[in-house]
Specification:
mainly beta; 4-stranded antiparallel β-sheet; 11 strands; single chain
Length: 123
Amino acid sequence: VQLQASGGGLVQAGASLRLSCAASGRTSSRSFMGWFRQAPGKERDFVAGINWSGISTVYADSVRGRFTISRDNAKNTVYLQMNSLKPEDTAVYYCAANVGVLVSQKERQYDYWGQGTLVTVSS
């Protein structure tokens, strides 16, 4: 499975961005997907996750209410809509996936990773 993330960029605080992550290769409809981010000098952290059907989602406290994760299984694509962006959201954002029914917040539960897309939020 290959994951290709896109949509990052430089925006001002308060703006919105939508990240996309397209999966290709031996994809499975029974997969959970997630977004993680890594700020400069910090560890990679969980941001949001979604189960295979899109019904179940989970968010980090820092983004709940501002970010929305969704997926289009017909397009093998997961999205992260980011609203009300803050400078502390600046990071490289990674999408990740694995086969399974339940969504996970744990990095070690994800076997497949995209290359990352940089989001920079200026104050």
